[in-house]
Write a structure and sequence with these properties.
Blueprint lengths: L3 E4 L3 E5 L2 E5 L10 E6 L4 H15 L3 E6 L12 H19 L2 E5 L10 H14 L3 E4 L7 H16 L17 E5 L13 E4 L4 H9 L24 H22 L1 H7 L2 H6 L3 E6 L8 H7 L5
Helix pairs in contact: 1-2, 1-5, 2-5, 3-4, 5-6
């Protein structure tokens, strides 16, 4: 039985071979609601922490969900104590980003695309009344990442079906489903459909990642005692290194997506963007036109 831990803190749709277009006027004028799924307590923060902070600053509601509790994601610690520590870390990160977060009590490394988990993901999306749902793609080095992507994909249509999980009201409008960026090429490479500058919140995102000490400063499952010195006076150098590495990573995303950035920003502005996050549209949900996407991502001038 899956238990859940809470931490406070104009589109085209294809159904049964029939396509219909929803006008841009149907884009919600109310507060947007975004839910992001990651396999572990750090995945969402890495992939969408910048966009989440920008949505939050504009008054929209964002929730990060870790589908496992991360209880084997460390070289020294494991089990309940590690799961508790990692929940505490994402709690702190969520406060920095201005969002909500939830960690499901599935064991790290053991996630499976079961009917029970499909129903749970479907219910979470419905309960959040999501306009946007973001997840990993289903081709990834880690089985938990792959199966998180599959579970969210499997929910992409089922969230609209009245008699699937009928205890939670179905969504009358299918959300926009997106994938996080990744570098995997087979069976198909990531395609950056939406790229956003996160320059305005880069320090906020880096601050949020910095509190995930077990995963980054200490190296997570493949770390060692050599990474973070025991002497507190020697630790700032390691924390600075982690921060710099992440900054370079997000700079690389901007550089790799320079062409796509020019499609969303003024050309002069696009050339000056230093840090970015990118997302790919999943074919199984809504496929909005660009003017509607700009309303769902209200960050472009």
């Amino acid at each position: 039985m899956t238990r859940r831990f809470f931490i406070s803190l104009g589109s085209m749709v294809v159904l049964a071979g029939v396509s219909f277009v929803a006008s841009a006027a149907e884009t919600p004028s109310r507060t947007l609601r975004i839910i992001c799924f990651g396999a572990h307590p750090d995945d969402c923060e890495i992939k969408a922490g910048g966009a989440a902070a920008m949505w939050s600053k504009k008054g929209h509601k964002v929730k990060f969900v870790s589908v496992t509790n991360g209880d084997i994601g460390h070289w020294r610690e494991a089990g309940g104590p590690l799961a508790k520590r990692r929940r505490s870390e994402v709690d702190a990160a969520a406060k920095i980003l201005g969002i909500e977060t939830e960690v499901l009590d599935n064991h790290d490394g053991e996630l499976m695309p079961t009917l029970e988990n499909r129903k749970l993901i479907t219910k979470l999306i419905r309960e959040w009344n999501a306009d946007i749902v973001i997840s990993p793609r289903p081709n990834d080095y880690h089985p938990d990442h792959r199966y998180t992507g599959i579970l969210v994909q499997d929910a992409a249509y089922m969230v609209t079906v009245p008699f699937f999980c009928p205890d939670i009201p179905h969504l009358k409008n299918n959300p926009l489903f997106l994938y996080y960026s990744d570098g995997f090429k087979k069976p198909n490479p990531f395609k950056a459909d939406i790229v956003v500058s996160i320059d305005s919140v880069i320090d906020q995102k880096l601050d949020a990642l910095a509190v995930l000490v077990s995963q980054f400063a200490e190296g997570g499952a493949n770390g060692s005692a050599n990474l973070l010195p025991a002497d507190p006076q020697k630790q700032p150098e390691r924390h600075a290194q982690v921060r710099q590495n992440f900054a370079h990573w997000f700079q690389s995303q901007a550089n790799e997506s320079r062409k796509e950035l020019a499609e969303w920003y003024d050309p002069d502005q696009a050339g000056k963007i230093k840090h970015a996050e990118a997302f790919e549209i999943c074919e199984y949900g809504r496929r909005p036109e660009k003017n509607e996407l700009k309303k769902l991502f209200p960050f472009f001038n």
